[in-house]
Specification:
- This protein is an alpha/beta fold and about 270 residues long.
- The protein is built from 9 helices and 11 strands.
- A hairpin with a 2-residue loop joins β1 (about 5) and β2 (about 10).
- α1 (about 25-35) packs parallel to α2.
- Mean pLDDT is about 90; it is low at about 1-10 and about 250-255.
């Protein structure tokens, strides 16, 4: 594990986990349990509820003695709730898990060990399991580093699963938190912001988290998040030179040709 000196003995690096939530009582306890059941000795768990009226507060009260801090009050949205958590975090390492997702056993230990073995790493990302609404497996996403010209990263846009990501707290101190004018693609914008600044994740093949599809989840409505993805393309694309934009376009065309050729050869 990552270690720090404290009273002349080595202790694991503290991990802060932030959970934003609003009226997710049906899933919240599973998320909380997945955090607490990690058995990680230096855990700071923060939950920011946006004023739920569905029984979420009663769940939080039951776990109050195991949660470092929680609140239930109206906020300006998920990004604002998360930023409040990042500002309060005291852990050397930080992660966030939404209240309808959950961690796989051993996730915190795996992330901490990866940071210890790679002290230059500022961001660690593992694989993420995606489930259908009926609980069946949809896919396991094994993230990969971005390929091709940087302009292509913004055009796609490139991203990795947020639920299985962990960062050093210093990343938030250097680059700020989530943009609160994004409500659906804030994790993609944040990751792209880091990548374009030269901070890329250390990729782990191990599954660290599970995203459970819910029929009423906001991510199921493309009309909600597609406009934000278009906006982040425009936002991050303005800094590229004409040469970089042309290189990105050429890379996309070449990939498209390879894809068509591969399909025709079958």
């Amino acid at each position: 594990m990552v270690v720090t000196e404290q009273h002349n003995r080595c202790v694991p690096a503290r991990i802060t986990i932030v959970t934003p939530s609003l009226n997710q009582a049906a899933y919240l306890e599973r998320t909380i349990s997945s955090v607490l059941d990690q058995g990680y000795p230096e855990l700071e768990y923060l939950v920011f509820d946006g004023g739920s009226t569905d029984g979420s507060v009663e769940i939080l009260r039951r776990y109050a003695d195991q949660i470092a801090y929680w609140e239930s009050e109206q906020d300006r949205g998920q990004s604002h709730a998360l930023n409040k958590g990042f500002e309060r975090a005291t852990g050397e390492l930080v992660g966030w898990i939404n209240s309808d997702d959950y961690y796989r056993p051993g996730a915190f230990a795996a992330a901490a060990e990866a940071f210890e073995a790679n002290p230059e790493a500022e961001w660690v990302c593992g694989a993420c399991r995606y489930l259908n609404a009926d609980g069946s497996l949809n896919m396991v996403w094994h993230p990969r580093l971005p390929r091709g010209p940087r302009s292509r990263w913004a055009f796609e846009p490139w991203y990795v699963p947020q639920a299985s990501s962990f960062w050093r707290r210093s990343v938030f101190e250097r680059f700020g938190g989530l943009r609160e004018d994004y409500h659906f693609a804030m994790d993609t914008e944040f990751g792209l912001r880091l990548a374009l600044a030269g901070v890329l994740p250390l990729i782990l093949e191990q599954e660290l988290a599970v995203r459970a599809h819910q029929d009423d989840a906001k991510s199921t409505d493309p009309s909600q998040w597609i406009p934000e993805e278009e906006r982040l393309r425009a936002q991050h694309g303005v800094g590229f030179s004409r040469r970089e934009r042309l290189a990105g376009f050429g890379f996309r065309v070449a990939e498209r040709i390879r894809m068509i050729s591969s399909q025709n050869s079958r």
